[in-house]
């Protein structure tokens, strides 16, 4: 009996010692020199989340590295997928956190808690080379479901957190391929399949079915969903919303002419991202509108690139998270919709990546209702000009692709915790509202910043900034600074310890701005 008891004690002590030896953290670097496979590293983070293990995303620290509890299973998975990792102690991690939390380091720690449910909107007969996101998810070994109009119209989006749209034409013009490919078997088959699906759901035209799908997706976002779109799914989504109730399809697409004065009937207020654009009325033109900058840019391949914006991670960790990368320069790539002309982007839209030389945005983001949307111009980040019928990109040849990393940043975004941030909107009617945004972990906003109140003056383009008083705390405003989303200062003024101040925005252009009070970020303002 004593021998058995002794063996049991030895066994328990051995198990405790083994657990203690593994009580540290697994550090997955995401910088350019240490990580061997950036894309599969996202799959490791996703796998941990599926096992209900929290993942900490270290924004702007070594390329946006990941930290999670060390387990034999995760180590084995990293080794199997050739993802570089390092075992660190809790003391090591505490030192990293201290550096990131320091006031002079533009970084933050995001806690990812639950694996999002992923869906890709794609027709059943679509070829794999048509969709960069499908390729990225498959290569990263992140599970996802495929769905199309049948599932969306039946309310199938309710069970998902994240939805991707790619080379889709939501205007009902079959990708504007008619001029060049109307006799191609694949075009004829796609057109027949779309018309049959529309008829099955009781629609006389494909454009009517597509509008119904677009509205379902809009409701999905409003209810808290996260939408990610690339290539032609970006501009055709907004065009379809703006054209609700107006026929913008000419005879080759739906059998009758478009509505007279269709352009003047567009309602831009329904759009997520764009305004004041002009639709293409030429059935032979491989273009939908002047939202896309393809025909205006005149850029050589070797000089085609865009720059990611460096956002203040402690105040706006959501934007910083979507821009995590091991470089801030991303090589350009074309698509039916290559990039977005800045002239037609709504003021409140966040530009996260742009090519200033040709005045275009490549990577934009915004909020709608309780959810978010992100539009990414171009078709395939590792195929500069992907042609119809081309072979699929082999991502094993591009495991460290910065362009593909942006896609996977968005996949992980819904796993983050959320909080409210004060956002003031100045437009035709002046309003103040609170909108959801990605939160840091743990909460970083100080007591002072939480007490700052930003109120718009309804008769002027002015902000009234005050502080809710609290005993024993700073209750006076000494300085106000307003910056662009890229942290460029556009307004700065010091005050003599005022309890409230007035800031005039007349001299500022339309756009989104960050407000700092006494050196702390206190909210956002959108000027329309």
Structural class: alpha+beta
**Main pleated-sheet profile:** 10 strands, mixed
Kindly, what is the distance between the CA atoms of the first and last residues, rounded to a whole number of angstroms?
81 Å
Summed up, the helix count is 15
Under CATH at level 1, the class of the largest domain stands as: Alpha Beta
Question: Low-confidence parts lasting 5 or more residues at pLDDT below 50?
Answer: 7-22, 428-445
Give me the Rg, rounded: 25 Å
Strand content: 25-35%
How many domains make up the 3D coordinates? 3
Keywords:
Alpha-Beta Plaits; Rossmann fold; Immunoglobulin-like; 528 residues; 10-stranded mixed beta sheet; 15 helices; 3 domains; 25% strand; 24 strands; globular; 6-stranded mixed beta sheet; single chain; alpha+beta
Describe this entry's structure for a reader.
This protein is α+β, with helices and mostly antiparallel strands. The protein has 3 domains: 19-112, UreE, C-terminal domain (Alpha-Beta Plaits), CATH 3.30.70.790; 118-415, Rossmann fold, CATH 3.40.50.880; 420-527, Immunoglobulin-like, CATH 2.60.40. Helices cover 28% and strands 25% of the residues. The chain has 15 helices and 24 strands. The strands form 4 sheets. Strands 6, 7, 8, 9, 10, 11, 12, 13, 14 and 15 form a 10-stranded mixed β-sheet that branches. Strand 18 and strand 19 (462-467) form a beta hairpin. Helix 2 (38-50) packs across helix 5 and helix 2 (38-50) runs parallel beside helix 14. It is globular. It starts with a helix and ends with a strand. Residues 7-22 and 428-445 have low confidence and may be disordered.
């Amino acid at each position: 009996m004593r021998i058995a008891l002794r063996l049991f004690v030895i066994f328990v002590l051995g198990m405790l010692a083994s657990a203690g030896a593994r009580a540290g953290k697994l550090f997955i670097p995401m910088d350019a020199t240490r990580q061997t496979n950036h894309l599969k590293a996202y799959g490791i983070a996703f796998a941990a989340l599926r096992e209900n293990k929290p993942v900490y995303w270290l924004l702007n620290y070594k390329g946006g590295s990941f930290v999670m509890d060390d387990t034999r299973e995760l180590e084995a998975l990293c080794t199997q997928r050739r993802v570089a990792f390092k075992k660190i102690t809790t003391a090591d991690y505490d030192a990293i956190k201290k550096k990131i939390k320091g006031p002079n380091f533009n970084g933050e720690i995001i806690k990812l808690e639950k694996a999002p449910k992923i869906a890709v909107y794609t027709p059943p007969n679509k070829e794999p080379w048509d969709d960069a996101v499908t390729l990225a998810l498959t290569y990263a070994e992140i599970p996802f479901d495929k769905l199309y109009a049948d599932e969306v119209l039946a309310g199938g989006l309710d069970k998902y957190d994240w939805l991707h749209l790619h080379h889709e034409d939501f205007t009902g013009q079959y990708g504007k391929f008619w001029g060049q490919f109307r006799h191609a078997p694949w075009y004829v088959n796609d057109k027949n399949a779309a018309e049959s699906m529309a008829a099955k759901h009781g629609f006389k035209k494909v454009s009517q079915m597509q509008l119904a799908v677009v509205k379902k997706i809009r409701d999905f976002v409003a209810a808290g969903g996260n939408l990610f779109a690339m290539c032609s799914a970006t501009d055709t989504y907004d065009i379809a919303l703006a054209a609700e109730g107006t026929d913008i399809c000419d005879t080759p697409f739906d059998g009758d002419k478009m509505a007279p004065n269709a352009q003047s009937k567009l309602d831009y207020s329904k759009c997520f991202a764009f305004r004041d654009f002009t639709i293409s009325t030429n059935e032979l033109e491989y273009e939908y509108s002047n939202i896309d900058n393809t025909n205006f840019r005149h850029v050589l391949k070797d000089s085609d690139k865009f720059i990611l914006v460096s956002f203040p991670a402690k105040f706006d960790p959501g934007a910083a998270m979507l821009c995590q990368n091991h470089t801030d320069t991303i090589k350009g790539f074309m698509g039916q919709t290559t990039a977005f002309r800045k002239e037609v982007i709504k003021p409140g839209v966040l530009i996260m990546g742009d090519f200033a030389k040709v005045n275009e945005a490549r990577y934009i983001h915004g909020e709608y209702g309780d959810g978010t949307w992100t539009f990414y111009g171009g078709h395939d980040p590792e195929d500069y000009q992907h042609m119809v019928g081309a072979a699929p990109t082999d991502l094993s040849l591009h495991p460290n692709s910065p362009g593909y990393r942006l896609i996977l940043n968005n996949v992980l975004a819904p796993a983050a915790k959320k909080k409210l941030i004060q956002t003031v909107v100045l437009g035709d009617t002046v309003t103040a509202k609170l909108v959801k945004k990605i939160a840091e972990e743990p909460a970083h906003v100080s007591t002072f910043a939480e007490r700052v109140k930003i109120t718009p003056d309804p008769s002027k383009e002015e902000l009234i900034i005050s502080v809710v008083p609290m005993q024993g705390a700073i209750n006076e405003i000494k300085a106000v600074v307003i910056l662009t989303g890229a942290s460029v200062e556009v307004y700065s003024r010091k005050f003599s310890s005022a309890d409230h101040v007035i800031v005039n925005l007349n001299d500022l252009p339309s756009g989104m701005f960050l407000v700092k009070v006494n050196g702390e970020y206190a909210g956002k303002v959108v000027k329309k």
